[in-house]
Write a structure and sequence with these properties.
- With about 325 residues, the chain is of the alpha/beta class.
- Helices cover about 50% and strands about 10% of the residues.
- The protein has 13 helices and eight strands.
- Helix 3 runs parallel beside helix 4 (about 105-115) and helix 7 crosses helix 9 (about 215-230).
- The longest helix is centred in the C-terminal third of the chain and has 21 residues, at about 240-260.
Length: about 325
């Protein structure tokens, strides 16, 4: 009977927080330095952590909270908790409060304010927050906030009273290179797979497929290992890796499209239908379809967002600029 290949599937999950950080030690030190005053009871600026998906932002932030602020922190994924009510409810639960589920948002805020507990609050996937007034509530109660976003911070994106109250420091995460992805895969394989079940050459191929996104590499590894087990194989082969990469691409596309707003989805669907379009032509078609009377600036911001997510490629410049579907 062939031995199982996966011995701990959890290490390949997006929510997994490693015992030690791989290739993000510098960013971890910087975040810890920025938050260090809190340990002495002093004020610390809030942090705006940004960069493309799958580059370690969440892992580093959760590691920092676990190692340095385990008893006075809260982590909220705003992909699933998008409203002020859900965010405040989650924070209170993590702070040890009893929540009955019938409280209004204002009642939750009063309960939070009455507790006077100063927390380090991490709001991951912050692009999905529907009501950013929750940030003002946190700032008003002297909480330090770590906001994690897939896009670069712009002060114009936030209400002045909130940005001035929180006083952000900015930390950028850049995509992993191939060698860094390979190191991450090796570390997770050591923890989660039977020794000898996947060799370095196979992991190097996966690293090349990942395009700087560690989540893609980890998903390919897990999916390929499952496939190999179903085939009663002793090791993961290139065939399983290739099959896994196809399904992983569909997963990533579904995830990335879910981060777009309605207007961005309209633009994407227009471009998907045509594959390649001149920027001016795309803008005119988008204006014709949209009911929001979009401006040129709004359109440019939307296209910049889709470029950052890897959904589109840009060619040329100015009047010769054109866009092409990339994912």
């Amino acid at each position: 009977m062939v031995s199982k290949i996966i011995i701990d599937e959890g290490v390949f999950d997006e929510c997994f927080t490693p015992e030690s950080l791989v290739c993000r030690e510098g960013q971890a030190r910087e975040i810890a330095r920025c938050l260090a005053p809190i340990k002495s009871g002093k004020f610390a600026k809030s942090l705006y952590i940004h960069g493309p998906p799958g580059i370690g932002k969440t892992s580093v932030a959760k590691w920092i909270l676990r190692e340095h602020f385990e008893n006075n922190s809260a982590y909220v994924n705003c992909w699933s908790k998008r409203t002020s009510h859900k965010i405040m409810e989650d924070i209170l639960l993590q702070a040890g409060h009893v929540i009955h589920g019938r409280e209004s948002t204002s009642e939750l805020i009063k309960k939070f304010e009455k507790s006077k507990k100063k927390l380090v609050v991490c709001l991951d996937e912050s692009d999905h927050i529907k009501d950013i007034d929750v940030l003002y509530t946190l700032a008003r109660n002297s909480c330090t906030v770590m906001i994690i976003s897939n896009r670069e911070f712009s002060p114009t994106d936030m209400d002045y009273r909130i940005s001035s109250s929180l006083s952000f420091d900015e930390i950028e995460f850049k995509p992993y290179n191939r060698e860094e992805i390979l190191n991450i895969l090796k570390e997770r394989a050591t923890c989660g797979m039977r020794p000898g079940s996947v060799d370095n050459n196979i992991m190097s191929v996966v690293a090349g497929m990942s395009n700087g996104d560690a989540r893609i590499g980890l998903q390919i590894m897990r999916s390929a290992a499952r496939d190999a087990e179903l085939k009663n194989l002793d090791v993961v082969t290139l065939e399983e890796i290739k099959n896994a990469s196809k399904s992983t691409r569909k997963y990533r596309l579904s995830y990335v499209l879910g981060t777009l707003n309605i207007e961005q989805r309209i633009i994407y669907e227009i471009l998907l239908k045509n594959k390649v379009m001149d920027s001016g032509q795309l803008f005119e078609e988008y204006r014709r379809v949209s009911t929001n009377n979009p401006t040129d600036r709004t359109y440019r911001n939307y296209m910049q967002r889709m470029k950052e997510l890897g959904l589109v490629k840009e060619h040329g410049s100015h009047r010769w600029k054109r866009f092409e579907i990339a994912l």
